Amino acid sequence: MGSVTVASLDQKLALAKRCSHEGVMAGAKAAVVATVATTIPTLASVRMLPWARTNLNPTAQALIISTVAGMTYFIVADKTVLASARKNSFGARNKSI
Questions:
Q1: How far apart are CA 69 and CA 66, in angstroms?
Q2: CB within 8 A of 39, min separation 6: which ones?
Q3: What InterPro entries has UniProt attached to this entry (predicted)?
């Protein structure tokens, strides 16, 4: 095992920041799409279906939409960060061989 230099630690930190930034951006984009994809049917069902009109007040509608957006953000961000880490770990292993 070689000695750890400041330059290698800085490089690893920069790589980690880039991976997390990619995850945040991918998660945010997916959350926007999920919000639109959830808002349209939720609002349409409240206007057209008597059951939904009776039982889904504005708070329930907002809860449905925000839950889907939040879940989408975290799932996509996590998958993106894991994919980047996996790609970088395989790249580092191939370079060291």
A1: 5
A2: 65
A3: Enod93
| pLDDT score recorded for residue 1 | 47
Give the SS3 label for residue 42.
helix
pLDDT digits (tens, 9 = 90+) for 2-19: 567 888 888 888 888 888
- Distance CA(42)–CA(68), nearest Å, equals 11
Count how many residues are written for the chain. Answer: 97
76, burial (CB in 10 Å: exposed 0-12, middle 13-18, buried 19+)? buried
Q: Which two tokens stand for residue 38?
A: 């959830």
What pLDDT, on the 0 to 100 scale, is given for residue 91? 59
b/e map of 26-53 (b: 16 or more CB within 10 Å)?
A: bbeebbeebbeebbeebeeebeeeeebe
